[in-house]
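Protocol step 4 of 5: obtain the predicted structure for the target chain.
Materials: sequence only (see below). No template structures provided, no constraints applied. The aim of this step is simply to have a reference model before the mutagenesis design in step 5. Sequence pasted as it appears in the construct record:
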Amino acid sequence: MEATHPTTVSDCDPAQRATTRELCRGLWASVPVLLGFIPFALVLGAQATQKGMSAVAVPVMTGLNFGGGSEFTAIRLWSSPPHLLLIASMSLLVNSRHLLMGAALEPYLRHVPQGRALASLFFMCDESWAMALADAKRRASINLSMAYFMGVSIGLYLTWVVFTAMGAMLGPLIGDLERYGFDMAFTAVFLVLLRGMWRGRVACRPWFVSLVVAALTYCLMPTGAWYVAAGALAGLCSAALMAPKEGK
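Step 4 output (C-alpha cells):
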C-alpha cells in the first residue's frame, strides 16, 4: 500500500495544527511591540557605529546577547580598546533581572522538558516575558503556551537583529537619530506593557518601591547601572513583605 504524507497544515495531526495556530497567534500579538522595537533598534545601531563598532559587529552583538538595556550600556562604555571586563560585568548586572523574570516563569514551565525550556529562555526579553505571562493569566492556565511564547520571541528577535544592523549601516548617513525622538519608543513600549499588567494600586505597590529606589540610586550613583540591581532587589523584597499572608 502506498504511504500518504501530509502536504498542508490541514493534513497534519491536531497537535501540530494547534502548535502552528499558537505560533501564529504569538507572532501576530507581537506586531505592535515589534513596531515599537524598530526606532530604538535603529538608535542602538547608529550609536554603536558612532563609537567605532563595525556594521558587522552590531548584529553579532545583538544576536548573541538580545538584551537591549545591556547593549545600550555596553555602547556607552565602549572605547578603543574596549574594557571588556567592565562591559561584561555591567551587562551581567543589567541582565540580572532575567533571573527574577525566569523565576517568575518557572511555575508556568513545569510541563516543558528542562532542556527545551532553557533553550527557549535565550529568547526571553522584557516584552516576550510580560506578554507570555499575561497570556497565561488571561487564559487562567497554569501552563505557558510555548508556541505562543516562541511566536512572540521570534518576531521580536529578528526585528531587533535586523534593525540594529540597519541602524549601523544608515546611522553614519543620517546622523544622530535621537534628535528625531526615536529613543522615546523604548519608554512608550514599557508603559504599554505596564498598562496591560496593571492590577490596581495595592497589587502594584512593589512597582512603586522599585521605581523610587531605582531613581534614588540613579541620582546618587549615576555612573554604571547600579540602579537596575537596586530597583530589582527593592521590588523583590517589597513584594515578599507585602504579599498576603496565607491563613493557617
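Step 4 remarks: The two ends are 66 Å apart (CA to CA). The longest helix spans residues 146-174.
Proceed to step 5.
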